Amino acid sequence: MNQFLSVDDVKDPMALVNDAISLKKDPFAFQSLGKNKTMGMLFFNSSLRTRMSTQKAARNLGMDVLVMNVTQDSWQIETQEGAIMNSDKAEHIMEAAAVMGQYCDILGVRSFPGLKDREMDYSEHLIKSFVKYAGVPVVSLESATLHPLQSLADLITISEHWPKRKPKVVLTWAPHIKALPQAVSNSFSEWIQKMDVDFTITHPQGLELADKFTKNATLEYDQLKAFEGADFIYVKNWSSYQDYGKVIDQPEWIVDSAKMALTNDAKVMHCLPVRRNVVIADEVMDSENALMIEQANNRTYSAQVVLKELLQRL
Ligand code: AN0
Ligand code: CP
User: Fold this and answer.
1) Whose CA is nearest to atom 10 of ligand 1?
2) I need a labelling partner for 283 at 20 to 30 A (CA). Which of 49, 64, 67, 114 fits?
């Protein structure tokens, strides 16, 4: 692995999951691996889990960490090649990325999509520019279309709760008041298909995700039917991919205990942050079957196993 932008950068995703579970048992086993190495983390957007868990992971490996909130603390960055820079953007990514590559051995980047120009967002221009100009391995901390560190943590969590039979995993769309990226859902869809599960996606018509991520998943427009017999319910809102960035108002898609009663006593998952009683009802958030805090804990080990792999190849 020489970068971590998607599942395609990982030769054996299940081996990575198992390695993360071993690290979780002995998190300081590789404390000298990152000695005198620096992890840089750039945030173009808000974050709680990614920011804290990735710093913790880097420190568990003995690394130094530099964190930058690009939109507040740094110069505004121009990303278009050939731009005439006579507006508010003071620095080009060609210099900014190359400079950060001088200070850091690994660079993590969080940058959400604008949700206005689908072609631009799905080209992953920003994170690819960091790859091009930084000259050091780049880790996605959630890019315009993918959130692989989250999905790896989700697979770790599902592995830890693996039932006796091949599980039915359901990704369900749920309501939200704002236009959210498709990244978590795209990523979950591609990672979960590396596991031996039956995978169903349910959402209202018009909220289809891009085919290249959903591939062989079963699509079921009837949420109640999709929930029948499920072992894991993964809840996430996303804005429309077809009518790009549009917010769809379907409050009845909230995940509540009546819907959970249709499942095979399913565990319920969400990447967080979650809006209670809009996306998921309190009764489900507070139930014994809720795995959200475990997922958040596993973000440390997903980041740590990725940084470990990258450090071993520096
Ligand atoms: C973001 C998203 O949906 O991609 C981050 C999730 C990890 N969520 C929000 O902006 C609420
Ligand atoms: N799940 C997740 O990535 O959370 P943050 O946006 O808080 O980092």
Assistant:
1) 180
2) 49
